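thread: overnight batch results

M.L. [08:02]
morning all. the overnight job finished for the chain we discussed friday. pasting input first so we're all looking at the same thing
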Amino acid sequence: MKTMNAQQIRQAYLDFFVQKQHLVLPRALLVPQDDPTTLFTGSGMQPLLPYLLGQEHPLGSRLVDSQTCIRAQDIEEVGDNRHTTFFEMLGNWSLGDYFKQEQIQWLWEFLTTIVGLDPQRIYVSCYLGNKSLNIPKDIQSAAIWADIFKKSAIDPVEIDLDTPELGGQLGDQHGRIFFYSDKNWWSRSGSASNMPDGEPGGPDTELFYLFPQVKHDIKYGKYCHVNCDCGRYIELGNCVFMEYLKTAKGFSKLPKRNVDYGGGLERIAAAALDDPDVFKISLMWPIVNILEQISGRRYASQTNSMRVITDHLRAATFLAIDGVIPSNKEQGYVMRRLIRRAIRYAFDLGIEQNFIGEVVSIIADIYHQDFPEVAKNRDKIIEILVREEKIFRQTLRKGLKQMDKLSSQGNLTGEAIFTLYDTYGFPVELSSEEAFKRGLELDSNWREVFNSKMANQRKLSQTAAKGTFKGGLGGHSDIHKKYHTATHLLYKALRDTLGDMVVQHGSNITEERLRFDFSYPHKLTNEQIKEVEDIVNKQISRDLVVSWSEYPTEKALKQMGALGAFGDRYGDKVKVYSMTPKNAKKPYSLEVCGGPHVEHTNQLAEGNKRFHIIKEESSSAGIRRIRAVLK
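M.L. [08:03]
and the structure it wrote out:
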């Protein structure tokens, strides 16, 4: 069998589940819309949470997709053979339809028959159970796996390991099916014992692929097991069987059981190549090749730096596609950090000239056929990233000038290195390298001082984040619904005042305020702000009726004229919210949205509150930002 590349695996996966009566979901944006609880789409299931919790999906009960994801918390781990901040998650879902038998059998069929992975090297884990919570061991999944393994002449030896730590002490013990406790339970709040009342969850089964050419590293435990971090086993995917609901009396069964599978495309492609290095797959190796050409260095000798640059620029490219601009806040800050880390690691390769344009062109070539939005926005993406590269090179020059001043002191303190990092954006690694070049001594405790100041900064950032990102799933509290409704009125009022050039570029809603980004080339005058406020308050006082219906996407957007957000992509059907005066046929506001909203606009005025714009400012080039409150 010819080895499939990553692009072929992605398409084969979608085709396989389409044949199983699944409908393909469009790629969701990397920046979740109207979900203030997280900065990025970090898994394929994240955009589907409302439907896993019981809401009817317009496309039905069997769904499949390949979702781009970002996990910024992994940024420091990039450099080994498998961790990336940006990745694609292959996913399929059953919303109250099929369950364990079909899911496990189909997944085995896809990986072994379609992709061609060696069955002898596939291992699985299942849920051990929790006797104190009266949740049984998942013997059903284990039995299905045992039957599958037997048909492939594999002895399905079952081993109870309970925790990864115990696995490191005991090893895999020649097992094939491993039972863990919390590691194989899924809920939004973590382990089953931590779940609040009303929260759904369930056991999961994970698949691992053995790379026998990788030697176990004892720093991860005395012995290797499937959940070891040494890289000998790599997780290919996870099937969550959501079937329980936490109640005040314990756990009850959900009326509709769901299946949620997520599998890393890059890792499956690496397994198909029989190489544990995910950077050698077809989605990344061309980027490595261009870095070798630009630098004149080889991947074998500069592995870590090339991996970091490859991953970070892929992530930054797709953030640009989805409308993110480098900045010092939220998603823009992460994007800026990714770009600047890529430039810093390019120094290790001897690349001191601008290079990002060449690399991003290769990334666009890799993805443009499978993601039309890449081809459509190619020039804009390159422009955004190249501009940030030029800005940072100026930042580097400023940092070097500051280093000249510090050179006169004869030594470099942790406080000075933190100032260079925090104020001038000067990477810590460059500070220490420059100190060495200039013959400056580093204080013996510089790293402790720097880490202490960084820890204080993180603590402040986390405190600020808690104030910014409040609420539960999608922010379904009453005040969140009010602010969500207010964004619809604001959007229409801006277009009434400024014209049709106003297009939404994102929103963020907390319990304290709403934030709304929109395209407009000029700062709003005080008169324009007052007019927008008056229009919104007038519509609130008219007590518009808020309702929704589902329509074919083309009808909603083109025939009905429903508004949407820039960059959003939709399936065949969409939910359209209308806000209509009583006894009127024509709505004031008509917008594609997932909810939630109030039922009548006068609910926004409860307690004699009015809509106030408290700030209007530039968000990025050509994009304005409004912050508003109800008070």
